[in-house]
Amino acid sequence: MRNFPLGHAYGQPGVELIVSFRYMPTYPRIGTEGLVRMRKRLERFPKVPPVRALVAELRDAEARGERGEPAHWPDMIVRLMRVAIQQNTVLEERVARDKDEALRVLDSLRRDVLAIVERDAGRRGDRIARTVEERFDNARFPFLGDRAIPRIAVQSTAGEVSLETGLRNPDPWTEDDKRRLIAKGYQLLDELLVEQAVA
Questions:
Q1: Which residue, of 7, 8, 17, 72, has the greatest Cβ tally within 10 A?
Q2: How far apart are the C-alpha atoms of 31 and 168, rounded to whole Å?
Q3: Domain tally for the chain?
Q4: Which domain holds residue 125?
Q5: For 98-131, how does the pLDDT look when each residue is reduced to its tens digit (9 = 90+)?
Q6: Is the CB of residue 150 less than 8 Å from the CB of residue 103?
């Protein structure tokens, strides 16, 4: 249902740090090779009107493929599915980022208001501060009960190893390929931890 379920991680009370790996796919091109082969076979029957019409359609599809456009319905559907998955991931990250920022701003506002009360309210400061705290606690925000959780996101392709299943006869993943990908993921995370001074 969700390709990058950050919201689910935020909903777990025991989670103190979210580390995610966002796979950046390099999709195989469907291409028009099959259409070209079909057109060449059909061109042997130029006098049959329906065949001539189909050959013309195939030529149009080849031209679309050469321009970088979806050549045919399967190509268009696959592209739209890929766009939907990528957009879903971007939205998950944006919601998490906006939520974190809102929680940080709210916490900063609470501390600033309490500091003002304690500084300016004199003897009644403690009572006013408690009232302000209660007001903040009773505020109803969409993210009520949520908390800012540190989040580290590693993004990468799989390099030369394709994780895509392909349309037919995909190459199996070897044990060495899997171990190299796992090692690469750890390496990228280590580099990011050093960069963010979390390690």
A1: 72
A2: 14
A3: 2
A4: 14-29+72-195
A5: 888 888 888 888 888 888 888 877 777 788 888 8
A6: no
